[in-house]
Recover the amino acids of this structure.
């Protein structure tokens, strides 16, 4: 294994995506059910992203979380990236600049962020509660709705940096 861990598939190279057009979560080209997921807050990044069909995303990450850097081009939009874990998909990266998904994530992150210091050795379990359609400009999108359920010790599947899950967390459905 390379020290940079840049090649190969596996945990670092797997992605999940919320598709407002179909109101579905997608992983590896297939729809997956995401009832609950665990957010790895240590991986949360914000920045400017340019997503174009058939091209790798172009991200310009903020130097500090939430502090906007210069917009690289008019095609770049604000977005985020975070690792999420669920039993259905394993460990995945969720990154997006989509208006609906960004709005949904922003709606839950404030409650998570305000409780993170009191749960320093734990990770948040977030439930996906569906979505609501909204009008944006001349178009429309769907905003995923999330609810912070609880804080748990990180599952072992989240990697070596995360502590192993305890027996009290075995009932988690995510």
């Amino acid at each position: 294994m390379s020290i940079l861990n840049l090649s190969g598939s596996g945990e670092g190279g797997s992605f999940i995506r919320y598709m407002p057009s179909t109101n579905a979560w997608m992983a590896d080209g297939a729809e997956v059910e995401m009832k609950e997921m665990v957010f790895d807050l240590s991986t949360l990044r914000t920045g400017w992203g340019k997503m174009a069909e058939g091209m790798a995303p172009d991200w310009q990450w903020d130097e500090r979380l939430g502090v906007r850097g210069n917009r690289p081009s008019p095609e770049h939009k604000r977005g985020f990236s975070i690792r999420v874990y669920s039993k259905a998909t394993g460990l995945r990266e969720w990154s997006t600049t989509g208006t609906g998904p960004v709005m949904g994530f922003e709606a839950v992150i404030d409650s998570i962020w305000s409780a993170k210091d009191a749960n320093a050795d734990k990770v948040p379990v977030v439930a996906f509660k569906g979505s609501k359609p909204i009008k944006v400009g001349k178009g429309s999108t769907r905003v995923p709705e999330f609810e912070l359920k609880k804080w748990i010790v990180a599952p072992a599947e989240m990697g070596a940096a995360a502590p192993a899950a305890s027996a009290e967390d075995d009932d988690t459905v995510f």
About this structure: The CA atoms of residues 48 and 71 lie 6 Å apart. Confidence is low (pLDDT under 50) at residues 1-12, 161-174. The chain has one domain: 12-64+71-167. The radius of gyration is 16 Å.
